[in-house]
Amino acid sequence: MIDCQLREPVLVIGYNRPRYLAAVLDRIRDAAPERLYFAVDGPRADRPEDDADVQACRDLVANVDWPCEVHKLFRDRNLGCGAAVTAAITWFLDHEDRGLILEDDVVPDPSFFPFCAELLDRYQNDDRVLAVSGSNVVPRGHLSQPDLPYRFSQIPHIWGWAVWRRTWSQHRLDLGVWQDKLDAPTLWTRTGGSLTGTLVWAGTFEMVSQGLLDTWDVQLVFASMISGQWTATSNVNLTENIGSEAATHHPASQYITQPVGQARLPLDDVPLVLDAKADTWTRIQHFQASARARQALGLRSPRFRKFLEEVRHLSRGQRSV
């Protein structure tokens, strides 16, 4: 018996992992959202085994057995990670002003839903805030104020998150010549004057622009860097990523997150201040900054090499102060 349905809409995104998707839907059932958006990418033409798995994911819409308005987006052909997820979120937010987003390997704690709903309300009209995240990868000892229910981060973590149409509209899948929109001094500032941090994100943006990385979440980071907006991020990990062995872009070590806990509701007000300590830990440990910085230094685009020279100049100037 459902006592109270979640009023915020939920988008769940799947592809070819019906076992994982079923687990996510089981947890969504506990929240019983009034409106559910169900997006499944199409099978790959060169992978005949995809047909049955993709169909099995589509069939899971029958598991929606609570009073619910269901919207479906089933692709006939495979769009790939970057385009499929981007299109699904855009489709969702073409119909809704805001909502919660779960991919097929992210199982939320029940408190994830009211946590996101409360912060979507709290920062609805605050242009300083980009998104809300229920995922926390940072150990308690590396949070500036661990007793607060959430913090603000420059990096939007997307293993269970929520967003408004007003901020998603800043997302662009094609980074193109990204340096025209994000210069070296701005990126340097956004990373707190960190040489490795600047190299990590400059290199990652460059890889996406060259088509070496098919993703969509890097572009969300890019949008946050341009705007200077932060993500309200839970200090308690509210989601479990169950898809580590099938990771597309992340080594298994990045799936060693914090134990799943519960949000303390209602949420106390939190000062809108960046938790630089937590972001530094995330950059060094979660994003493996040293290795990624070396990777960035290996990229040979002439324009990118010029950008790196500007970064080195900023670094030398900081050391001279």
In short:
This protein is α/β, with parallel strands linked by helices and 321 residues long.
What about the largest sheet? 8 strands, mixed
How far apart lie the N and C ends?
Answer: 65 Å
> Based on DSSP secondary structure assignment, what is the total number of beta strands?
10
The H-and-E topology, N to C, reads as EHEHEHEEHEEEHHHHEEHHH
Task: Give the strand order of the largest sheet, numbering strands 1, 2, ... along the chain.
Answer: 3-2-1-4-8-6-9-7
Structural commentary:
By secondary structure, the protein is α/β, with parallel strands linked by helices. It has a domain at 1-104: Rossmann fold, CATH 3.40.50. It is 39% helix and 15% strand. It has eleven helices and ten strands. It has helices spanning 18-31, 50-59, 81-95, 112-122, 165-168, 184-190, 195-209, 217-227, 276-286, 289-297, 302-320, and strands at 10-14, 35-40, 69-74, 98-103, 106-108, 129-133, 150-153, 161-164, 230-234, 239-241. The strands form two sheets. It has an eight-stranded mixed sheet, with helices on both faces. Strands 5-10 form a two-stranded antiparallel ribbon. Helix 1 links the parallel strand 1 and strand 2. Helix 1 packs parallel to helix 2 (50-59). It is globular and about 60 Å long. The chain starts with 9 loop residues before the first strand and ends with a helix.
